[in-house]
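Below is a filled-in request sheet from our internal design queue. Each sheet records the structural input a requester submitted and the sequence that came back. We keep these sheets so that new team members can see what a complete request looks like end to end.

REQUESTER: design group, bay 2
PRIORITY: normal
MODE: inverse folding
CHAIN LENGTH: 134
BACKBONE (tokenized):
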């Protein structure tokens, strides 16, 4: 079992094929979803090895210290070794909500919704109808 503990954006940029994404801050709550038994060997990965090392050392609720028989893997070293990398959010079952996008990371629809809100705060816009618009 491989668990990637950095942000969803880092996970999408590249992870060990078949890895599960569980942000480090959610590990205690979600470890049972990805590794249901304490007998399941776990490798913890992240971009540079820091978050994975910290996650592995956090004993509260995860049981990771005794489960991490497979150790910690830094994706930077994994990629330098020429090992296979999977990109995207494959296997992530719900839209990630760990990162709040701003500025250039937002898309055109986000910008248009914001501008509508700026023009008429609190107004619900119905398709084809301009309710309560000045």
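RETURNED SEQUENCE:
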């Amino acid at each position: 079992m491989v668990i990637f503990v950095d942000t969803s954006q880092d996970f999408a940029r590249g992870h060990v094929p078949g890895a599960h994404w569980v942000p480090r801050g959610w590990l205690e709550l979600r470890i049972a979803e990805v590794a249901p038994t304490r007998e399941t060997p776990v490798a913890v990965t992240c971009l540079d090895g820091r978050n994975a090392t910290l996650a592995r050392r956090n004993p509260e609720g995860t049981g990771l210290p005794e489960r991490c028989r497979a150790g910690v893997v830094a994706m930077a070293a994994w990629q330098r070794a020429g090992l296979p990398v999977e990109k995207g959010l494959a296997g992530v079952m719900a839209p990630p909500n760990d990162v709040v996008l701003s500025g250039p990371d937002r898309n055109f629809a986000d910008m248009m919704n914001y501008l509508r809100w700026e023009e008429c705060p609190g107004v619900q816009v119905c398709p084809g109808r301009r309710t309560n618009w000045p």
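SHEET NOTES:
- The chain has a mean pLDDT of 77.
- Residues 108-119 form the longest helix (12 residues).
FILED BY: M.R.
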